[in-house]
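step 3/5: co-fold with XIL
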Amino acid sequence: MRRREFMGAGLLAASLAGLSKASYPLTLRPLTDYPDEPGTLASRAAARGLLFGTAVKSATLQTDPRYAALVAQQAGVLVAEYEMKWDVIAAQPDRYDFAPGDAILAFARKNGQRMRGHTLCWYAVNPAWVEQKMRDPSIDRATKAKLLTGYIDTVARRYSGKMIHWDVVNEPIDPSEGRPDGMRVKNIWSEALGETYIDMAFHAAREADPHAVLYLNEFGIESDIPWNEAKRTALLKLLDRLKGRGVPIQGLGIQSHLQPYKARFDERIFRDFLEKVTGYGLKLSVTELDLSDRALTKDSNEPEPARRDNQVAAVAKAFLDVALSFKQTEAVLCWGLSDKYSWLSSRWAKDRWPEGSFARGLPYTSDLREKKLYRAIGAAFDAAPDRSMIV
Ligand code: XIL
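step 4/5: write tokens
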């Protein structure tokens, strides 16, 4: 293993000084100095039979050539951050707009990159006209089912052969809404069609695209906190039902929006969960990796960026070490490469720093310099067993 472990107890203690235990319930990990190895994240992943990639926005690829060059260089697989969601593809009834998604696909092809499709059926980011129809009591169930499967048929057929994966169903679980089975309640699809919407979506995707590996994608299943445990339990039961009904699901996407200062990561719990998931014969991908570096505390001793970068990198490495130890793991995608364009920086006030600085949850700084997280991801690929060697 090519890595220099531990920075030494003194330095570790110094770098943790000022952190109050009460503010940081996680177990902080030993700081590691990941080596600066040659190659790109894509090439280091490929050397182990893995794919590394990122979510991209078509607009950013056009407006920021330096960033576009970085994406071309570092990623072996791309996913559209929003361009292949229903709200973009079918903002108006009976009109499809594939242009934004196609722009990303063209970029990927030009640069020899693969693409994941994201996402065919989600409770969020649907156009108002779809929500209205799905909630209209005067429209019958068969018509509502056809709205879902017709859309999936059109989109998955159009991109057939061009996507390595499809996130067919996104985020179907939310035990906090109170259903005993933990399934999401506020969801236009299940409200109209019951849980069978998932079966319908996967069957329609399989029929339209015989090539892509069909994924169910979920967040909040990674960490050692009660609401993640509840999601894992509900998800495993769902997989059991889907497999029992012969639904053609082939992979589980682990979104991996990690929150190291709020949600402890425990290798054993995560490994145990992945063992159960792969027991259903499923592939795995880390689909949306980023790490919020907000501690959500008024503590005046907030760790400064260098310390946060160390801690975030260490959690990512521990997390990836477990994920990559499974031969079923195909790909690791970050939800963006640079903090400048991260949804953590732009969308969620809780993840942005109060004085306005960006969240630091991605491998590159906002001015496109490699961070410790970049090295940690690279080190995880270097240390990963070659897919073909795992029995
Ligand atoms: C987010 C995008 O980053 C935003 O740009 C968009 O407005 C909303 O969606 N889980 C998912 C992704 O599966 O589609 C979400 O992406 C992030 C959470």
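step 5/5: annotate
Confidence is low (pLDDT under 50) at residues 1-25.
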